[in-house]
Amino acid sequence: MTRGLTTGIVADGQDLPVREVTRRAQLAEKAGVDSVWLIQLPGIRDSAGILAAMAVLTERVTLGAGILPFYTRPPVVMAQTAATIDDLSDGRFVLGVGIGHRLTAEWTLGTSLDQPVAAIREYLTIVTDLLRTGESHLDGRYFRAHATYTEPRRAGLPTYLGVLGPKMCELAGELADGLLLWMCPSDYVRDVAIPHLRIGLSRAGRDPADFPVTVLVPGSVSDNRDKDRERLRRYLYTYARVPNYRRMYEAAGFAGSLRTGTISDDLLDSVGVMGSHDDVCATIRRFHEAGATEVVMTPMAEAHYDDGLWLRTAEAAVAAR
Predict the structure, then answer these.
(1) pLDDT for 85
(2) Phi-psi region for residue 42, left (φ > 0), alpha (ψ -120 to 50) or beta?
């Protein structure tokens, strides 16, 4: 991957007023980051609505949705949402979509996730066709769409696919405009995600040199490193209990740690960072070396609430480029 290396930050704050979250986007832009992202979790506000607000309150920074689960919106509505935010931002939006988690889809929303890779292939085809050409016609097994989009539309609006496993990495290379990874060890990015992405790119006859790989990394500048590392360890443990994440960590060589029911220091340090400005910079550079073209810091623990620590994390992201 030979694209220029960029950095970003997540302006997350599900406990903060929306005005505070949008203000963070403005702070990040002033600090000089390349991108500001919002995540979407069950039971919190709709990140697309907040991204629309950010679009009119910022001027330069790229705005990213990472990741909108595909079962939360029909594909035509997802494309409409993306095109609207992109129009509001004058062409600064990146749409990230993914499968999400079976528990959320089936228990919370009552949506079946039978054959999710096959389903999201159809879903992604509809979304990208509509965004790229303004028209989509598909009668698939899982999704149908016969739609046009007649409002202003940027044909180059990128749709990234949020992935974990090898098959999804290959699908991103075939159909998407970028790869989006979350909570991944850097070795997994280098040894599994990138090679399988290249398989998909080769299958579709696409050039890997211009294909973006964005990795969202949990962590931040911390004034209480030991305490915040333990918070991150507990957070990572909740993910390690989810089957698809556990498979990823096992594939990255941490099966032994997981069998003990603990998160080892090696696994913790391979996924995220809690420490000094220099620690954050070193982690970002490690993910860049692993193949990420963009590294997005996701402030955790105290930095999630503390504007000063959050801004220092943004400044470290800028310095690491």
Answers:
(1) 98
(2) beta
Burial readout 230-262 (b: 16 or more C-beta within 10 A, e: otherwise):
ebbbebbeebbeeeebeebbebbebeebbeeee
User: Whole-angstrom Cα distance, residue 311 to residue 14?
Assistant: 17
What are the structural domains, with CATH classification, of the chain?
6-319 (3.20.20.30)
Q: Give the DSSP letter string of 269-286.
A: HHH-EEE-HHHHHHHHHH
The segments of the chain whose pLDDT lies below 50 read 1-2
Give the 3-state secondary structure of residue 45.
Answer: coil
Alpha carbons within 13 angstroms on the beta-carbon side of residue 262 total 6
For CA atoms 234, 235, 241, 244, give the dihedral sign: negative
Intra-chain end-to-end CA distance of the chain, in Å: 16
d(CA 236, CA 264): 10
For every residue of 87-110, DSSP letters joined together read: HHTTS-EEEEEE---HHIIIIIS-
Distances (CA, A) of 47 to 174, 211, 253, 257, 295: 27, 25, 34, 34, 20
For 249, the token pair is: 């960590």
Q: How far apart are alpha carbons 77 and 66 in whole angstroms?
A: 17
Indicate the SS3 state at residue 37.
Answer: strand
Are 95 and 78 in contact, with CB atoms under 8 Å apart? yes
| Residues in the chain, total | 321
Tokens of 224: 């209480």
Which 3 state secondary structure label does DSSP give 298?
strand
d(CA 202, CA 61): 31
SS3 227: helix
- Quote the pTM value: 0.95
Do the strands 93-98 and 6-10 form a parallel or antiparallel pair, or are they unpaired?
Answer: unpaired
**Closest C-alpha among 251, 259, 215 to residue 1:** 215
pLDDT confidence of residue 2: 44
274 touches 232 (CB < 8 A): yes
**Contact status, residue 173 vs residue 155, Cβ threshold 8 Å:** no
Q: Which residue has the tokens 């129009």?
A: 87
Upstream peptide bond of 39 is cis (omega within 30 degrees of 0):
no
